[in-house]
Structures are given as C-alpha cells and as structure tokens.
Amino acid sequence: MRRFVYCKVVLTTSLVWVLVDVFLLLYFSECNKCDNKKDHSLLPALRAVMSRTHEAPGEMGKAVVIPKDEQEKMKELFKINQFNLMASDMIALNRSLPDVRLDGCKTKTYPDDLPNTSIVIVFHNEAWSTLLRTIHSAINRSPRHLLLEILLVDDASERDFLKKKLEDHVATLEVPVRILRMEQRSGLIRARLRGAAATRGQVITFLDAHCECTVGWLEPLLARIKEDRRAVVCPIIDVISDETFEYMAGSDMTYGGFNWKLNFRWYPVPQREMDRRKGDRTLPVRSGSAMCSGRPHHTASLVELSGWMSSKISSTSSHQIRNVETNQCVDNMGRKENEKVGFFNCHGMGGNQVFSYTADKEIRTDDLCLDASRLNGPVVMLKCHHMKGNQMFEYDAERLTLLHVNSNQCLDMPSEDDKMVPTLRDCSGRRSQQWILRNMTLSV
After folding, report:
1. Cis, bond preceding 115 (omega within 30 deg of 0)
2. pLDDT of residue 202
3. What are the boundaries of each domain within the chain?
4. Torsion over CA of 168, 175, 289 and 237, rounded to 10 degrees?
5. pLDDT above 50 (res 289)
C-alpha cells in the first residue's frame, strides 16, 4: 500500500512539472518573448494549450473539409459573404497558426520602449466568426503593453448580431474595444478616417475585418516607426483560402504596388534591393511591403479593394480564373511581355490574378493578352492587338471551358513538364479544362 501511494505521488509530481514546462514554453513562444515586467499574463499560453490539445477544425491553419451531405448548405452560406462561412464558423475564434517566419526573424529582439498602437478595423455586414477571429488574434498575439485599444468602425451594417451582441462581446475582452457607428454607408476610406480621428495611441494600425495576426506580427512594424516616425510600414500578407480557410504563407520576395493604370500588382523584389540588403532577408524592403517578422494575413475572399483601389479601371469586369480540378488560378506572376503566363494557388487578393474578359474575347492583364501561336501552347502574354486571332478565347459558361478559337483547343491545367504554366489541349470536357471566372469587381 505504501509503495502504491509513493508511486502516485511521483507520477503526480512528474505530471505537474510537465504541465509547468508546457506553459512556460508556450508563454515565451506565444508572447514572442514578452518582457515580464510589462506582461505577466499567461492567458496567451493557456489559449495555446487549449487550442492545440484538440484536433479541432482549422487548427494550425489546416484546411477545413465539409462533409458531402453538407455541401449544398455550404454553397448557400457561401453566397452571404462570398467565402465558406460554414468552414469559418467551425473554426475557433482563437485558432492556432504555424509560425512561418524566417529563422532570423524569430530571433530578432526589439527595444523596450516601442510606441503603442491603436488598431482600427472597418466592417460592413462582416461575418461574426471572421470579425471576431480578427479581434481575438490581434489581442492574443500582441504584447499587451503595445496594444492600447481597438476601434471598430461599423460602416452602416444591417445585421442584428453586429449591434448589441457585438457590443456585449467586446466588453468582455482584456483590451479596450470601442465601436463607432457611421450614420450612413460611407466607404472604407471615410470610415477609416473616422476611426483614425478617434484613436489615442501613438501609432495607428489599420487591419481588415477578415484577417488573422500570427505571432510576432506587431513588434517589427512598430520598431520601424520608432526608427523613423514618418515611415508607413506594411507586413508580408499571407493568405487564407476562401474555400477551406487553409493558411498559406506568402512570399517575402514580392512587394505590392500600382502600375500606371492604377492596377494593384505584386512585383518581385528588384535586384537593387537584394543587393542593398546583402542577402539578409530579415531587413525590410523599401517602398514596398515591409517586415519579414510581422505577418497578419487576409482571408483570400475579402481583400479590401473597394472604395479606393478598384481592381480594374475600365468598363470590363475583372475576374479570377480558377481551375476546377486543381483549385489554382491563372497568375501573371509579375512577368513581362512575351513571357509565359503562370499558375499559382488562388489567393483572392486581386493583384496578379486579376484578368479581364473583354468584348473581343481577349483575356487581358493590363495591356497584355493571353496568346497562343501553335497547338498545345505555350500560352504567353503579348501586347493586345484587338485583331482576335491567337488572342481569342471563347468562354462557355455552361461547360466552363475556355476555347482558343484558332487552335480549336481548350485551356488546360499545366503539364508535368512545366507545372507552373497552363497549356492548350484537345477539348475533352475533363475537369482540368474547366475554369470558373469569378467576378473580382467590388462595389464602392
């Protein structure tokens, strides 16, 4: 009997120490090495333990799979916000995400006296789960002493759950959250200006209402502003699939910008910047997206282009061209004239995946059109000549095919020889030749 009691004591003590170790490890990883003098809270660690001890939907950024018998309901819910609302509602508001930062970013340290910030989030009829996940991720992954407050600006939402229910929920959070209500629909920029005018922090941080912040997202942004208060900084923007809510890491080798037609595009980091950084990818890219260490990411379906940054300034609607078989999209990859068009994971963020299908049946990206001069491709981008010919593609909205008229072949997914370039093949009706042209024109 005495031996049994002794064994119970040893096992209990061992279990306690294991739990203490887990809490300490998660505390320092989730709080990004918080200064103990400024943040004694173990809440982030506790949340991490709770979320990571269950194989819940979407944990660690994994894709959510909807059962077949729920597919029709999923499609109906999709229409409400133009993303998989059923999947979003299945995911915890404080779900875990992988830390995809470069090793050099993970070990960086920052000054103790960084400026604090007010976060401004504008929403209009936003889904409950995506809005709350944005708020919770910002709170859970921001050092408490740096996050002064969150301002939610309601741009005349009509949904009841965004009224008193939202007010009651945010009142329970450990960070002060204020809700400002626009009297009438005013658009993204006016709403952001209203929020900015009401902030009390030293720095204003704007987030979309449908993003999630990962560990270490805030400190590098504030550090750059501390170095130069005139700086306007932007993190790497990762992607959440609008279909499955899978987390997909973005690239630190691209930056966002506008071309002369005011189309937003992703461009490769120029060689001069690579040379300036001397191979150190933890340094920011100037005049483009900034920090390697800070990675809030947008849900792919709801990138904020409306109100000030129209995807395409023309009478032709713009589209994302998604392959049914692979769920990947045609992408210009930032390439130039006479280079092959690309094929990449759909991110719903416009940019290089915005194409317009014109009245002349051209597939355009800026001044370039998809062009194929021989059977089986390749499909390249050439100056639009408005003479149809090699640049004429007929879209069949029922069969979902893009027929290249001159060759009488269909646009198809890439071949094994070149997995990053769509090709032409004899039309067969298979899923790899089916394309969904999703309208990317967002209302102002």
Report:
1. no
2. 97
3. 76-302, 318-439
4. -50
5. no
CATH architecture of 318-439: Trefoil (2.80)
For residues 86, 89, 91, 97, the Cα torsion angle rounded to the nearest 10 degrees is 90
CB atoms within 10 A of CB 168: 9
251 pLDDT band, cuts 50/70/90, is: confident
Instruction: Note the pTM of the prediction, 2 decimals.
Output: 0.65
pLDDT, tens digit (0-9, with 9 covering 90-100), for 14-73: 676 666 665 555 544 444 434 444 444 444 444 444 444 458 999 999 999 999 999 999
Dihedral through CA 57, CA 58, CA 59, CA 62, nearest 10? 120
Q: Is the dihedral of CA 82, 240, 370, 374 positive or negative?
A: negative
181: which DSSP letter? E
CA dist 311 and 349 (Å) reads 10
CA 303 to CA 297: how far, in whole Å? 10
For 176-229, the pLDDT digits (tens) are 999 999 999 999 999 999 999 999 999 999 999 999 999 999 999 999 999 999
Phi, psi of 14 (to 5 degrees): -60, -40
What are the two backbone dihedrals, phi and then psi, of residue 226, each rounded to the nearest 5 degrees? -65, -35
Mean pLDDT of the chain: 81
What's the CA angle centered on 123, arms 118 and 125, to 5 degrees? 155
Per-residue pLDDT at 13 exceeds 80: no
CA distances from 165 to 132, 162, 170, 182 (A): 12, 6, 9, 18
Question: Which residues fall within 8 angstroms of residue 220, CB to CB, at 6 or more apart?
Answer: 105, 108, 110, 235, 284, 290, 291, 292, 293, 294
Token pair of 81, please? 């916000």
**390 CB contacts (<8 Å, ≥6 apart)?**
371, 372, 373, 404, 406
**Which amino acid, one-letter code, is at 439?**
N
* Fold assignment, 76-302: Spore Coat Polysaccharide Biosynthesis Protein SpsA; Chain A (3.90.550)
Please classify residue 198 by burial: count the beta carbons closer than 10 Å to its beta carbon, then call 0-12 exposed, 13-18 middle and 19+ buried.
middle
Which segments within 130-201 are labelled E, that is strand? 147-154, 177-181
Residue 2 has a pLDDT of 61
Q: What does each C-alpha distance from 313 to 3, 266, 438, 444 come to in angstroms? A: 80, 17, 17, 12
